[in-house]
Amino acid sequence: MQKHLKNAALSATVLAMATVVGTATAADSTKLRIQTHFSQEQLSGEMAAEFIEDISSMSNGEIEVEMFYSSAVVKSTETFDAAATGILDCDMTGGAYQTGKNAAFQFAGDLMGGYQNPYQQMAWLLHADGYTKINELYNKYDMEFVGWWIPGPESLSSTKPIRNAEDFKNWKFRSPPGMATMIFKNLGASPIVMDFNEIFTALESGIIDGADAANLTNNVGLGLYDIAEHTNYPGFHSMPADHLACNKDVWDGMPEHHKSIMKVAMQALALRNATANEVANAQTAKDLKAKGVNLYEWSPEDLQAYRDAVQAGWTEFATTPESKSLLESHMGFLKDLGAMK
Fold first, then answer.
1. Phi, psi dihedral angles at 40 (to 5 degrees)
2. Which of 129, 163, 289, 320 is the most exposed place for a label (fewest CB within 10 A)?
C-alpha cells in the first residue's frame, strides 16, 4: 500500500513538474510577423535575415519570426498601421514613412543631413534621450520603438547629371514622404512620392529622372544603376534610420528576456549594418566607376547650400509639439558634439 502511495505521489509530482514546464514553455514562446521593404537579395535584406537568426539563437528558439520581404503584405507606407492594428506584429521599415500622421516621425527617422554618419545618430539614441523621446511618439500610435539600424548616407540615382544644387532644377525624382519633398522643392526639383518597389519601373519608363532610394549598394540591389548612369558619392542628403517597431500590446505581452534579446540584437544589427555598408559602398563605388557610371563628389560650397536649406526646413517642418521636442533634443545633442553651431 505504501509503495502504491509513493508511486502515486511520484507520478503526481512528475505530472505537476511537466505541467509547470509546459506552462513556462508556452509563456516563453513569442511568434512575430514582421514586414520589411527590403528584398532578400539586398544587403539590408540579408542582414534582416541574420537578425532573425540572432534572436532565434539567443532565445533558444523561443522567438519565432515569419518575415515578409519586399512589402509583401501591405505597401511600405502602410506597414506601421498594419502592425498597430494587428495585421502584422512588427514593422521593419522606417519612421519617416509616417510623417503624414505627425511631423515628428521625420525626426524619428531622418534629419536629412543633420548627422554625418550612423555612429553620431546612434550615439543620440544610446547616450542621450533617444529611446525615451521616440517612444513618447510611437506609444501614442499603439507601437513600441525597439531599435534603429542605419546603413549610412544615401546616394541619389539619376539619368541626368547631379553635379551640384543647380542640377536639381526641374529634376523629377522619386522621393520618400516627409521633409525630403519640401527641401528638394525649395531647391527647384520635382519630387514624386511613390512606394519603394515602384522605383525601377518608374525610372525605366521615364516617369522619373532619378530616385532618392538608398545607398550605393542597396541601389545596385534595386537595379537602379542598370538605367541611371549618374550618382553622387559620398552621400550627404539623407541618412534614414530603418526601425523595428512592434505592436504595443504584443510587445508588452512578451517576456522581459525576449524584449532584452530583441533590443540587444537590434543594437548588434546596427553596428554590423553600418560597418558592412561602409565597406560595401567603397567597393561598389569602384565597381560602378569601372562600369562607366558617373560618381559626383559635391564641393564644400554646394554641400553648404544644401545644409542651409535643410536647417531652414527643420524649423518649417516641425509643426507639432512632438516634432519640436524631438528636433530640440537632436539639435542640443549635435551642438554638444560640436557638429552644429
1. -65, -20
2. 289
Contact 242, 44 (CB under 8 A): yes
Cis peptide before 234 (omega within 30 of 0): yes
Q: What is the C-alpha to C-alpha distance for residues 325 and 132, in angstroms, rounded to an integer?
A: 11
pLDDT single digits (tens) 166-179: 999 999 999 987 78
Closest CA to 108 of 58, 145, 53: 145
What is 37-64 written as a DSSP string?
A: SS-TTSHHHHHHHHHHHHHHHHTTT-EE
Rounded distance, CA 216 to CA 2, Å? 77
Instruction: Say yes or no: do domains 31-106+113-152+240-279 and 155-238+293-337 share a fold.
Output: yes
pLDDT digit string, tens, across residues 276-295: 999 999 999 999 999 999 99
CATH, range 155-238+293-337: 3.40.190.170
